TrEMBL record:
Keywords: 2Fe-2S, Iron, Iron-sulfur, Metal-binding. It comes from the Bacteria. Residues 1-105 form the 2Fe-2S ferredoxin-type domain. PANTHER family: FERREDOXIN-2, MITOCHONDRIAL (PTHR23426:SF65), FERREDOXIN/ADRENODOXIN (PTHR23426). This is 2Fe-2S iron-sulfur cluster-binding protein. Belongs to the adrenodoxin/putidaredoxin family. Its cofactor is [2Fe-2S] cluster. InterPro entries: 2Fe-2S_ferredoxin-like_sf, 2Fe-2S_ferredoxin-type, Adrenodoxin-like, Beta-grasp_dom_sf.
């Protein structure tokens, strides 16, 4: 299990746990915890509605891919540590990270 913190649109933080042996994406995990993630494209990196900002732990996760950057650059606002939650796999690299929801909410 991996534990990381999620900050919602109102600034509230919650520690959540996710299994790191199922191949789940951060987007799928956030939806399972009932966070308001639209994920309109279903995790194909085509819509950027699962936009998150990695406040802590971004170095461990590495840089956004070109596919992610193509979507993020079309947003009205994105940050140097912005990522698409659908492109981040739950792994030990997320341990202790702080993720802020940035995408549109439902």
């Amino acid at each position: 299990m991996v534990t990381f913190t999620v900050e919602d649109h109102d600034g509230n933080r919650q520690n959540i746990e996710a299994p790191d042996d199922m191949g789940l994406s951060l987007m799928e995990t956030l939806k399972a915890y009932e966070y308001p993630i639209l994920a309109t494209c279903g995790g194909m990196a085509l819509c950027a509605t699962c936009h998150v900002e990695v406040l802590e732990g971004d170095k461990e996760l590495g840089n956004a891919t070109d596919v992610e950057l193509d979507q993020l650059e079309n947003l009205p606002e994105y940050f140097p540590t912005s990522r698409l939650a659908c492109q981040i796999r739950i792994s030990p690299l997320l341990e202790g990270a702080v993720i802020k929801l940035r995408g549109e909410d439902n």
